[in-house]
Amino acid sequence: MRPEPRISVAMGAYNAQPYLAEAIESILSQTFGDFEFLIVNDGSTDGSGDVIDAYAARDPRVRALHQPNAGLVASLNRAIDEARAPLIARMDADDISLPDRFEKQLAFMAANPDYGVVGTATDDIDEQGRITRNLDYHPLDHESFLEALDGRPLICHPSVIMHRDVLVAVGGYRRAFVHCEDYDLWLRLSQHTRICSIKDRLFQYRRSWTQVSTAFNVQQQIGAAVAFFAHQERIAGRPDPTEGLDKLPPIDALDDLFGRPGVAQAVRARVAPNLLHSGEALRSDGFDLLLRHIADGGARDGLWRTTARLMKLREPKRAARLAIALATSSERPRLSA
């Protein structure tokens, strides 16, 4: 067995063949090369497994781990379990790490040993790899990170390097928070270590219509809201009601889960504003959440404009239902869980 590496790179891959080789090459081309690269083939059916095996055969740093499809959370937790290094670097199978990413992140961590999670500024790229926008709004120190926990951008998940011992201490990724597993993890880690991003733009994050944040927007937003309120429970010194769950209950069951009234209403109030510009959400169960939010007396900011947006989306019946709901109910004082 090779000596213990400095970094274990953890990447899950599911039917990622179009971009997989480019993602792998971007890691193998790092100026800092003392790492192992754990790639979990999560039951791919498109040839991704063959791509991974080919790289494992030619570079001893690549470790191919094959499993039946179990999802990203299971893939990442498996990589963490099998990692041999004290640091875990994340990577996704459709993104690109610039060559000096690891070198610069490690330099920051050496100069700031109290930081256990460090990401980078990023560029968004499209499906053809063209840069579409530059993102440098992620918090550059822990205090700013904590201030952003109320819903502002925190850190680019696949760009981070984390201390493995802290990651293991908080239980890794949690299955109940599928599609928002990173946000839940940052909330828990923020109570145990300092977190930030460095200002260097060292990562290219690919945006596509098929990615999780688009396809599962409503579920992701609900899970993130529940994670936030679970975080507030921990901060207040109360038990985390989501601890140990394999799956989150329906919104209407959250009052029982948290042991007090108002949590379900507060979750809907937190989620509703984030759905107003998502056509996918407005065409799906996100619309029913908006109607329930209005019935609860929730805030109306932007909702009248959403009726016009629904017309543009060719959803006249939903536009009419939303307008009627707004006209026949009144806004009440906002609640907090």
UniProtKB/TrEMBL annotation:
Pfam families: Glycos_transf_2 (PF00535). GO terms for molecular function: glycosyltransferase activity. Keywords: Glycosyltransferase, Transferase. InterPro entries: Glyco_trans_2-like, Glycosyltransf_2, Nucleotide-diphossugar_trans. Residues 8-167 form the Glycosyltransferase 2-like domain. It comes from the Bacteria. Belongs to the glycosyltransferase 2 family. This is Glycosyl transferase family 2.
